[in-house]
Design brief:
Elements (H helix, E strand, L loop, with lengths): L1 E3 L5 E3 L8 E5 L8 E4 L3 E3 L7 E3 L5 E3 L5 E3 L4 E2 L8 E2 L7 E3 L8 E2 L12 H43 L15 H35 L1
Antiparallel strand pairs: 1-2, 3-4, 5-6, 7-8, 9-10, 11-12
Length: 211
């Protein structure tokens, strides 16, 4: 059977190769036969003029129409595709790559030049305010304690200190009340002296009587 090509020439229909190929669509007056490949094989070119072994993940096809494992540093996670190199922009490698998967990158540390957000700015301020208030409270408590202790010690000293009375010496004047007070004081002194003389006389008499 023939089909008409674009230039009007009649071309014989292509026959699918037995064994590896299968017919997908029959030849028509305007299109050639469309061939495919059996299970486990894939087309070797765009026209599927021949079939090659289908390479699995972790493999890649070769020029000899066979498959080979991905070389070290490359991977392939698709069917019958070329192997691709591992990522090189990863700064923190969590998992090393293999023939099937690329390397796994971890989170990159936060840049120190980045400005902190509102919450990050409020946190240090609250801590500083709390510390200042705590220190101020401690100072007030210490001051009150020291003052109370000082007052307590002063009261104890006042209680222990004996009360001394200073005699009042009155200077005689022409005032009658002053003269009376002085005369009374003089009589009291004479009476006290007389009492002492009588006491001494009694002691002397007692001594003579015993002798």
């Amino acid at each position: 059977m023939k089909w008409t090509e674009g230039l009007g020439d009649n071309v014989c229909c292509e026959a699918c190769k037995p064994g590896a190929q299968v017919m997908v669509k029959e030849c028509t007056a305007t299109t050639d036969t469309q061939c495919g490949c059996k299970e486990g094989l894939t087309c070797g070119d765009a026209k599927c003029s021949f079939c090659v072994k289908k390479c699995d993940k972790g493999q890649e096809p070769t020029e000899k129409r066979s498959c080979r494992p991905c070389p070290e540093g490359t991977f392939n996670d698709q069917i019958h595709q070329r192997c691709k190199p591992w990522s090189t922009k990863c700064q923190n490698i969590v998992t090393k790559g293999d023939a099937l998967t690329d390397i796994t990158c971890g989170n990159v540390s936060v840049d120190s030049s980045k400005k902190p957000g509102p919450a990050e700015q409020e946190w240090p301020l609250s801590v500083v305010a709390t510390v200042v208030l705590s220190v101020f409270s401690i100072i007030i408590i210490l001051f009150i304690t020291i003052l109370a202790k000082k007052n307590s010690n002063k009261k104890k000293e006042d209680i222990k200190k004996p009360i001394t009375s200073t005699p009042i010496i009155t200077t005689p004047t022409d005032d009658p009340r002053t003269l009376i007070a002085v005369e009374c004081s003089f009589h009291e002194a004479q009476q006290e002296q007389g009492s002492r003389s009588e006491l001494l006389g009694s002691r002397d008499s007692s001594g003579q009587f015993i002798a």
